[in-house]
Design brief:
Chain lengths: 424, 305
């Protein structure tokens, strides 16, 4: 039978295509019984829950939430965070938990869908009464849950490096904000690579655009360099031939790249195929970690630079132990990117804050968090700033054939500055 | 090197870039041109058949690395062929279990295949993990040739072009010059009457659907040289694929060729002079405008209704 109306069919097809980018909405609730080995002393009396929202804290257990995308397009990035947070919580439990209480995890799936994130965060805070939540990855999901956390007085540990311009009493940001990740990297390009002209590229959404805006201001006002091109491509774009030709035409001293997702793979493969390699072009990216490099293939990116606060190849003993524990739990081929490490810090920072406060009460934990130091972080020493972000270093890594980075440069500890003056 | 010859070189490469984009679009659309254009099945899972091809290439590359390193320079040719058969076989199964019950309800295929695409994505995720993987491609595929100094022509672009040329001619010949083509076209135009003339329409449907899926598999294998391999990689292509087929006129292969050519060239030219996002917006606007004036697409088959 022929279709009656091709026009109608067309309309339907396009409507369905538009819906294609949103993803499956299956959600699972896994209550993980985490292993326990150590038996610890009885809890101190002061730890009883208080405040407007009674917390799920008993004499033996404290319940926390985990809210990431285990399904949908973001699962690719968030899997590492889920694994790292679980590892940290398992290790804390093995040491006897927090204030003598074992940590119990309730995991929810945000399913790469922002309204789902908001709904699940409400469940975790109101029905499950979790004492803290480790979760979110994209800024969009964080923005979706923020009003819920502020209304219900929750506590969120957010792991991703992001564009800044945010500070909430109810959120701790364990990744770098934009100025920490960008400024030192550009300084390095100027100093070490003598870069005067820059070509900025990115995927077309808030993080790359805000970051490149900061980069442009820094290049023009501080480094007195020149931006010879600034280009954005839609998320999921797969054809970068025109962009590559423009780069060849402008011949910038350095390309500054913030492309994300599947586009990343297309970009570096096509760059290599067009004969643009580390031999003839300097390129620095802030969006490729070991996770992404796995999909790109080391051979397509070898020699290019990435600016991150953490690389898996860091040699300090904290990191060696962390990488070993991670591989023991998740297999010898597991890779650890910047965000995975930042996610690992979340439970440890929470533990330190609760112990300093002597209480699980949200207000007291938040108040106690300022200036907490963590000397056991895989990235080295970190310290919580009163603005809820972390002091951290910036490192420059050079991509290797085997999918790891050689660390070439390490900055001093950089103060987080989520609302940078003169960069907006 | 002076700047004028420099600009000439860029112009040449940009010309090639437009052509290469055209071939990528056409290669994606070939399978759908049969499934949607000829059979009228709105196959939302077409992108996932592409992904099957990509994962097949990845698996073969891993096997080669481990057991037959001497094959690592040539396994890719094998991967293209195997991708065709695996994607085609999955297509056969899908047709048998699902699609054949829906030929009389074309709009329902939309929902059914969309569900199928979600299921397939989760299956990929369960088998291969959520992270993207990368097939190790032969070195000869990832370089470029230099016909003139300063002009780099990517070899993977040439490969996609070659594949596209061969497959398009085969499909063109098959549809318009062979008995199978006559049967396919007859079946899609009037299923009842075709059966009355003795055509085994169920057989024709099954083979056509499998062929369309197999072509998607080949495209998926070829795209490992230019794009990502992950559970949702197929979704990156599905919108453009439908765009090409609908814009070209669903039932016309020539229309598909014309539409992918015009979309690719418009996009490449505008990308060069404007920015990437603006180019996409302008291209889509132009397509919408033309579809408003010509709802049947660029080319359409005249038929009595």
């Amino acid at each position: 039978m022929r279709m009656k109306s091709p026009r109608l069919v067309t309309v339907f097809a396009l409507v369905a295509l538009a819906g294609c980018s949103s993803s499956e909405a299956s959600a699972t609730s896994v209550s993980a019984a985490t292993s326990s080995t150590a038996e610890k002393a009885p809890p101190p009396p002061e730890a009883a829950p208080s405040g407007p929202r009674a917390l799920a804290v008993t004499e033996k257990e404290v319940t926390v939430g985990q809210l990431h995308s285990a399904t949908g397009t973001m699962a690719i990035s968030e899997t590492g965070s889920i694994q790292a947070e679980r590892l940290a919580i398992e290790q804390i439990n093995a040491q006897g938990g927090i204030l003598g209480r074992k940590i119990n995890i309730i995991q929810e799936d945000g399913a790469s869908d922002w309204p789902t994130f908001a709904e699940k965060s409400k469940k975790l805070l109101v029905s499950d009464r979790t004492a803290a939540v480790f979760g979110c990855w994209t800024s969009a999901s964080r923005k979706a849950v923020l009003p819920v956390f502020e209304k219900e007085q929750g506590l969120l540990y957010y792991p991703t490096f992001y564009e800044g311009l945010e500070q909430s009493k109810n959120v701790f940001y364990t990744g770098q904000e934009a100025t920490q990740q960008i400024l030192a990297g550009l300084d390095w390009l100027q100093k070490e690579k003598k870069a005067k002209t820059f070509f900025l590229i990115g995927s077309d959404y808030i993080w790359p655009r805000t970051s490149n805006k900061i980069a442009r201001k820094h290049i023009e006002n501080v480094l007195k360099g020149q931006v010879v091109g600034e280009e954005y491509y839609p998320l999921g774009h797969t054809q970068f031939g025109s962009l590559i030709n423009k780069i060849k035409l402008k011949k910038p001293d350095a390309v500054y790249a913030i492309i994300v997702g599947g586009s990343n793979v297309s970009f570096y493969k096509q760059l290599k195929a067009a004969g643009v390699t580390a031999q003839n072009q300097t390129l620095l990216t802030i969006s490729v970690t070991e996770d992404e490099l796995l999909g790109i293939g080391g051979e397509n990116m070898v020699g290019f630079y990435a600016a991150m606060k953490y690389f898996q190849s860091l040699k300090n003993e904290n990191n060696v132990a962390f990488v070993k524990a991670f591989k023991e739990k998740y297999g010898p081929n597991a890779v650890i990117g910047d965000v995975t490490q930042a996610a690992y810090l979340g439970p440890w920072l929470y533990k330190a804050a609760v112990e300093k406060a002597g209480s699980f009460d949200i207000d007291k934990v938040v108040a106690a968090s300022s200036d907490i130091e963590l000397k056991t972080a895989p990235e080295g020493y970190v310290k919580v700033h009163p603005n809820h972000h972390l002091w951290s270093k910036l490192r420059i890594g050079q991509a290797r054939l085997d999918g790891q980075f050689d660390v070439l440069y390490e900055s001093e500890l950089i103060e987080p500055n989520p609302f940078p003056k003169g960069y907006q | 090197m002076d700047s004028i010859s420099d600009f000439g070189a860029i112009l040449l490469m940009q010309g090639f870039n437009g052509l290469s984009n055209f071939c990528v679009l056409l290669l994606m659309a070939l399978g759908l041109a049969i499934i949607f254009g000829q059979m009228g099945v709105i196959n939302m899972a077409h992108g996932e058949f592409l992904t099957i091809g990509a994962y097949t290439t990845y698996v073969l590359s891993e096997i080669c690395q481990r057991y037959a390193p001497w094959l690592s320079d040539s396994y890719f040719v094998l991967a293209v062929v195997v991708s065709f058969f695996i994607a085609g076989a999955v297509g056969l199964v899908v047709e048998h279990l699902m699609i054949r019950k829906l030929y009389t309800r074309p709009l329902d295929t939309l929902l059914a295949t969309w569900g199928l695409s979600l299921i397939m994505q989760q299956v990929f995720r369960s088998i291969f993990g959520a992270r993207e993987v990368s097939a190790v491609l032969p070195a000869w595929l990832m370089g470029s040739v230099q016909p003139l100094p300063g002009v780099d022509i990517p070899i993977n672009g040439l490969l996609v072009m070659g594949l596209c040329l061969v497959l398009t001619s085969v499909i063109f010949f098959g549809l318009y010059r062979s008995r199978w083509g006559v049967r396919v076209r007859a079946t899609t135009q009037n299923r009842v009457m075709s059966r009355a003339t003795g055509i085994d329409t169920a057989h024709v449907d099954r083979l056509s659907f499998a062929l369309g899926c197999g072509l998607a598999g080949i495209a998926g294998a070829a795209f490992t040289t230019i794009g990502s391999t992950g559970p949702t990689s197929g979704t990156l292509y599905i919108v453009d694929t439908f765009l090409v087929v609908v814009f070209g006129g669903a039932q016309s292969l020539l229309g598909g060729i014309a539409s992918s050519f015009s979309i690719a060239q418009a996009q490449a030219t505008m990308e060069f002079f404007l920015s990437g996002s603006t180019a996409k917006v302008l291209t889509l606007s132009a397509v919408i405008l033309i579809l408003m004036l010509r709802p049947q697409g660029l080319f359409s088959i005249r038929a009595r209704s």
